[in-house]
Amino acid sequence: MELFQTRTSSLNLGRRGSAGAGLRGLITNVKHLEIVDILLKKEAILRHKDLPKKEREDRVVGELVRALQQCDYGVITPEMLDDLRKVTSTHLAQTQGQTVLSFVSMHGQESLQVLEYPHIHQLVYRMLRFLAL
Length: 133
Hints:
Layout: H1 30-48, H2 53-70, H3 78-93, H4 100-107, H5 118-131
Helix pairs in contact: 1-2, 1-3, 2-5
């Protein structure tokens, strides 16, 4: 009997998405994927534990974007803002490959759903779209 069993990570970084020509995702920094995934899962569990996973994630993305738009620091804390700022600024600074914004302008917002971690891509896209106004 093993005392410590190995568990698979909740962020399975080895999966392949089906978004055309092997495109896996647009956010390439693994640490940033993990940060945003943990943030979204934590908020989803705290706010909507009784909903199905997909609906929970969609609601939390909407709530965080709304909180950002309304400067609601009761929902989106300064620590969250700092983490999200790092993720979005690094994503925009990457010169190789395309950004979430350019991907959506070419393929439409629905196309984010075929990427790995669509909830993370959706959050980054909606934040960047809001910040670009």
